[in-house]
């Protein structure tokens, strides 16, 4: 594998998030960025559901579009339950 360098400009807030996540995962920002880029290409070619990986027992990471869809369904269910309770 050939290694090359890449210079990119990103918002300071995104850099801070990457740095914090890299520290949390106990590796460098470079390793965090490579891991995330590789995962983005892997997830595009998978035919499995949108769950990308298990983080800890009972928790999963979902794409934002799935999270928003679930939120809408839950909000609707809560409204219906409140109507029935009244």
UniProtKB/TrEMBL annotation:
Lineage: Bacteria, Pseudomonadati, Pseudomonadota, Gammaproteobacteria, Enterobacterales
Entry protein name: Arc family DNA-binding protein
Disordered: region residues: 41-61
Polar residues: bias regions: 41-50
Species per Swiss-Prot/TrEMBL record: Limnobaculum allomyrinae
GO MF annotation list: DNA binding
Keyword annotations from UniProtKB, A to Z: DNA-binding
Source species, domain of life: Bacteria
Residues in Arc-like DNA binding domain copies: 7-42
